[in-house]
Amino acid sequence: MKPKICVIGAGYWGKNLVRALYEIGCLYGVCDVDLKKLEKLRAEYDFKIFTSVKDALKDEEIEGYVIAVPPSSLDRVAIEVLKSGRHAFVEKPLSLSLRGLERMIELSEKKGGVLMGGYIFVYNETLSFIKNWFNSEKPYTYYIYSQRLNLGIIREDVNVWWSLAPHDVSIINFLFNERPDSIRTFGSSFIRKGIEDVVVGEVSYPNGMKVYIHVSWIDPCKIRRTVFITNKGMIEFDDTRTDDKVRIHKKTVEKKEVEKGLGEFSSFAEFQVILRSGETLIPAIRMKEPLRVEMEHFVDCILKMRKPNTDGVFSYEVLKVIEAGGRSLKSERKVKINWER
User: Fold this and answer.
1) Which residues have a Cβ under 8 Å from the Cβ of 183 and sit 6 or more positions away?
2) What architecture is domain 5-118+290-309?
3) b vs e for 51-84, b when ≥16 Cβ sit within 10 Å of the residue's Cβ?
4) What pTM was computed for the model?
5) For the chain, what percent of residues have pLDDT higher than 70?
């Protein structure tokens, strides 16, 4: 029997979660302080209305809660859900503090409720294809750059780094089994003092790989693009495209060591740069809606009582990088990331 799930937060993204849960037959209730918004939404989907988290938690028929409230309230609501022994799906970044997420993980383990982070790209078939390519080709990755730009949505409780960069960090964490050792971020505030509207970050890894992240909510163009530069090709992932989201460019840069003679003196080594340019491949990828896949995974984890792919540990490792990037913004210095808990 499918679990009954309640969505807490019927805002911009919460409405999408309501629709996805309705389509898979698990929507039981929706909670929001705005009664008019709930009544309007119920004209499209049948559900029980709650106007407070307290009332939603009193309903013992509900097994799981999908939490999509503003970032500053995520951990507070999730902690109440997990205290009740129920299951919690929490939208990114789950908390604005490491301690908040640690508390959620502790409660999940103690009370037995599933804790799942809302990192939708992990449930994207396109990213699964790219992950398989890396596992198969085993390339050396020189660097990665990611751009997440648009005009809006401008938040008041968090800056653009906290709002958008968790997507990019989750993509890298999903694809590579590596933890960065440092991060440096730069940003500027134009609309509200102290709340950055544009941020650029450099994430460094022990193996030499670099990841450059550019996020902005005051850009004229909607860009959702990640590019991987490796010694076996260059992969472009553009999430704004309808069909050809992935392009594999058979273009590489190689460094070859050559010997150069010095007459009667000993030779010395020089490096010759070799540029290779080949075809561009557009693989056919069978797509399923990532949001639906994500909600189906949450339901499956409830039914089978197993850890989600984006469990508390995965979410903690994303938050660790985001939090360090936030500290770098304030200090205007590179921040080392300590992975000891």
Assistant:
1) 201, 202, 203, 204, 321, 324, 325, 328, 334, 335, 337
2) 3-Layer(aba) Sandwich (3.40)
3) eebeebbeeeebbbbbbbbebeebbebbbbbbeb
4) 0.93
5) 95
